[in-house]
Design brief:
Order of helices and strands: HHH
Number of strands: 0
Number of helices: 3
Helix content: over 70%
Structural class: mainly alpha
Distance between the termini: 37 Å
Largest sheet: none
Amino acid sequence: MTEGYSLAFQIATELPLDLDYKQELLEIRAESARQERLLERLNQWLPKLAHVERVRAKAVGNGHGFQ
């Protein structure tokens, strides 16, 4: 990661965020507020990612999650 950039910006560059959301992060002046906003987004993704992982586990096996 590039030195000199805030942690929130460094994390945001690695995530598939839309341009409007990235602009919103840029407009937040306080690093702690940027991190909190980013954490909110990550927490929104968590249930979706868990679902995707369950579907992948079933797809690998016989449809019941067994490999």
